[in-house]
Amino acid sequence: MGEKLREQLRDMATTCSLPAALEAMGERWAFLILRAAFNGLYHFEEFQSELGIARNILANRLARFVEHGILERTTCADDRRKVEYRLTEKGYALLPTMVALRQWGERWETGVPASPVLVDARDGRAIRAVKVTSHDGRVLEKGDLKWVLAEDVFDEVAAE
Fold it and tell me: Are residues 77 and 107 both part of a single domain?
């Protein structure tokens, strides 16, 4: 590993997007709220009832998601006193992360398949495990991966 890469890895605390993602997500309740939103819950009371989460914690997490653009807060057309929390495009983009984390938990933590099962709405068949793939679609394993400087990747792409 080159010295330049070692320096970047040491400085990763300021350049890596993982801390920012974790800040937006918060903790365990955040993932459960997102799961509920993916399953079609929109109202504060629905989230609270479904999850059994304390109202103050739920309010805090929903506000954080709105602040980070993961959920949008809108008033209901039929009752202006009620609000809905709906996933934004940014929120929907978390679906692969949620699925991968759930699959990881099934394999490494609980050891049993979770229920309900996420299926393809078209044919009702269970989805495949989330995998890391290359630019050409090959499934990559840990021995196939390495860290390189971002400018080196862009240089290679530009050269092609």
Answer: no
Among residues 137, 57, 132, 125, the alpha carbon closest in space to that of 96 is found at: 132
pTM for the whole structure: 0.77
d(CA 141, CA 129): 13
Q: Which domain holds residue 151?
A: 95-160
Cα 87 to chain centroid distance, Å, stands at: 12
Residues 59 and 20 in one domain: yes
Q: Which of 93, 120, 139 is the last residue of a domain?
A: 93
Task: Provide the number of structural domains found in the chain.
Answer: 2
* The amino acid at 119: V
Q: pLDDT tens per residue, the chain (160 residues)? A: 567 766 766 665 566 676 777 777 768 899 899 999 999 999 999 999 999 999 999 999 999 999 999 999 999 888 888 999 999 999 999 999 999 988 988 888 888 888 888 999 999 999 999 999 999 999 999 999 988 888 888 544 444 4
In angstroms, the CA 15 to CA 118 distance is 34
For residue 12, the domain's CATH number is 1.10.10.10
